[in-house]
Amino acid sequence: MLLLERRPVASSLMRWASPLLALILTIITGFVLFLVMGKDPVEGLKFFFITPVSDLSGLSELGLKMAPLLLCAAGLTVCYRARIWNIGAEGHFLMGALGASVMAVQLSASSGFWVLPLVLLAGVLAGMLWAAIAAGLKTHLHCNEILTTIMLNYIALNLLLFTVHGPLKDPFGFGFPQSVMFADSALLPALIPGTRLHLGLAFGLFAAVAVRVLFARSFIGFQLNVVGQDHRAAAFAGFGVRRLTWFAFLVGGATAGLAGASEVTGPIGQLVPQVSPGYGYTAIIVVFLGRMNALGIVASSALLALTFIGGEMLQIGMHIPKAVTGLFQGLLLFYLLTCDAFIHYRIRRKNTAQQPLSAAVTTAPQEA
């Protein structure tokens, strides 16, 4: 009989092996799923993991998908290291896209180097404002941030849908729910000429480095770590837990808002309802898969970006529904959480054989 036994000390080996095991199990399950669907599993896995990055165009698209994931994940890392379970990166992203779009439409007749910074700043501030709602509810009304941020995501989505069907709708867009195209001065420059890869990837890499420096070199990063490890100890040490909670939320809102602003000023060039295929939610997987580490979230954002492109390739090449993207992402998270259990637990075999009862025997010491 097998049972789970708690380890005396958490396993460092499993902490880093868990993401690799989760990926291997996801690939094996994907292999089986392709067989069940009547598709060639080798060809399916090749379309999903290899074909998208087989040329420069594919690599640039990978970087394009990485940018918003990396920005959202960098902000969520700050929250999660402090054990603030912010699930609202999707809402921050959408509000950032909306705020940047409002500014870009207002400045559509303007030109100059100052237009793009203003548009990006509007997105950052919109994301921070949306995060501030959840921060205020947690610090002043003691509301659970998981519930409030999830609900705020849906409010942000419906607010965006209202604007593209109403105030921001292009009057010459043939009835489609979209804003007018942004002016060239409000668009991010391309990193590689001839591709769609833009400056947003540089923003994401900078954010990952900044998070690394924050926790490795700054006192506020140390405070956030202490809050995450022991909330009461942080309060006893005189750390402003409420102030740190606000800081974490605002950083998460700022980076996700910048991600949304970069998306509408980059490859899209306008606000559309499908501005996010779920970047904010996927960034949660990125954070845990990357072990809340700067290099880890860079690698995991590349892997999760690959799932978005791979799903599109499967839809085109093998006529498999695009929903397979969410399926692979869900499997990856499921297996990651399962493997993470073995960081603190191990499997032991229980001896079910009945031991015979025997009377206790005491031996009296012999007298000298």
Give a description of the structure.
The protein has about 375 residues and is mostly helical. Helices cover about 65% and strands about 5% of the residues. It has 13 helices and 2 strands; from the N terminus they run βαααααααααααααβ. It has helices at about 10-35, 40-50, 55-80, 90-105, 115-140, 145-165, 200-215, 220-230, 230-235, 240-270, 280-290, 295-315, 325-345, and strands at about 1-5, 345-350. The chain has a two-stranded antiparallel sheet with strand order 1-2. Helix 1 (about 10-35) crosses helix 2 and helix 3 runs parallel beside helix 7. The longest helix is centred in the last third of the chain and has 28 residues, at about 240-270. The protein is globular, with a radius of gyration of 25 Å. The termini are far apart. The model is unreliable at about 355-368 (pLDDT under 50).
Short summary:
With 368 residues, the chain is mostly helical. It is 67% helix and 3% strand. α3 packs across α8 (219-229), α4 crosses α10 (241-268) and α11 packs across α12 (294-317).
Write the layout of secondary structure elements.
Layout: E1 2-6, H1 12-36, H2 41-49, H3 56-81, H4 89-106, H5 115-141, H6 145-165, H7 200-217, H8 219-229, H9 231-236, H10 241-268, H11 279-289, H12 294-317, H13 324-344, E2 345-349
Helix pairs in contact: 1-2, 1-13, 2-12, 3-7, 3-8, 3-10, 3-11, 3-12, 4-5, 4-6, 4-10, 4-11, 5-6, 5-10, 7-8, 7-10, 7-12, 11-12, 11-13, 12-13
